[in-house]
Amino acid sequence: MKGMQNTSNVYRLPSFRELSGKVILAGAGPGDPELLTMKAFRYLQQADVVITDRLVSDTILEEYTKKDALIIPVGKQSGKDASTPQPVINDLLLEYALQGKLVLRLKGGDVSIFSNILDELKTLSENHIPYEIIPGITAASGAAAYAGIPLTARGYSTAVRFLTCYRDTLLDAAYWLDLARTDDTLVFYMSSAPLDQLVEKLISNGIADDKWLAVVEQATTPLQHIYNYPIHEHLAGHQGKTYASPTLIIIGKVASLYGDFQWMANSRSKEDYFTPVETTPVKKEKIS
Ligand code: SAH
After folding, report:
1. Domain span holding position 70
2. What are the CA-CA distances from residue 180 to residues 104, 251, 280 (Å)?
3. What positions carry a catalytic annotation?
4. What pTM value is reported for the model?
């Protein structure tokens, strides 16, 4: 009951588990800092150490953390050598948790979608470190909302698939055929570099004329920019583009709804919202 003191454990010695710290694995949402959950926000204000991915807004790290929190960027970025190897991240989690610290492991979007959470969970579990998992808004939900594209709009699509084709070999021929023929909305993560090949595969496998493409750069940030057209028009003038990072691709009939329901103007700036990974991965003390 509120106001009542709990005296039951006053003389109990703390167990090993209580002496060790704790790791909170939390999703930070896709970009807009206000898309953070209240729960992740509360832990940000308490955490001693924040180990963060690259796709987390600077505002979250600079304004929502404790003054003396240690912020450690462990970003990965395709094509950049400075990406922090997963074993190094696992070791950092252990190192600080075993010092009794409250460690917040922040990941862009949601923790369970295209993230290496499994490796980190195994490390924590094998070492008996207590942890909690807090979901976040994944890039697909964020991009869909800020583009005005309902992913499973009635009459357009009854399902949505979250995919990646960063390595062509991940999808076999039968699966490409299925992707081209399905009415499910397809959302591709980490796939802007191979976009031309992706579209060619779908077209050569017979994707219908009424399927549209929305390429969403830096979704939910002030630098959001969307390219939107029927997928068959890709071959006429949209090939060979380089997109800002990060970029999400939405394919399906629903992508044609952007023209009707967009509510955010395209940014004209080509700047990066998220800080690119540094040349050498470093531990960075927070500058307050
Ligand atoms: N766990 C994350 C995904 C990590 S994989 C989530 O749930 O969203 C990284 C990929 O996510 C990027 O390559 C990009 O395809 C997508 N992504 C993340 N944030 C994004 C954003 N703000 N805008 C567009 N795509 C984004």
Report:
1. 22-137
2. 40, 10, 41
3. 53, 76
4. 0.90
